[in-house]
Amino acid sequence: MKRLPQQYQAMDRQEFFKNEYATVFQREGDITVLKYFQKVPSHEMFLTVNEAIIDAYRERPTQILIADIRDMGILKVASQKWISNTLLPTLINILSGKTLYHAQLLNPNEIMSKVSANNVKRFEESLKSNFVMIQYDSEKELEKGITEFRKLI
Fold first, then answer.
1. What is the pTM of this model?
2. Looking at the domain covering 6-152, what would its CATH class be?
């Protein structure tokens, strides 16, 4: 199993879910992180991993959600639709009117993964408010983005 990047290991964190494919945890008390270690083998396993995000939000909602999907692979269409139709609306509902700031960390060399992520990004365009999604190609840029998100909260 791949190890978490160093910046995630040393932080104050509470883990909500972990298996050989991914982990869901909260860091620094105000950020929920989904980190994939490898491609999930099925839509059912994808649901298991992502339902852990909803469980984490029910216990400790945060306005910042990071999805490190560099090692996730290509999302099935059903999984993309589930994110747009179930996951994101549920998280936004849990936040009761507060904005959800969603950062995706992408592998710039994985063109099809970027296509999948962009399909999910279209969800942002369908909302009038309460959801902001930004995609990053590097951890350094992601951390700068988190700093900007925190200024908006």
1. 0.86
2. alpha beta
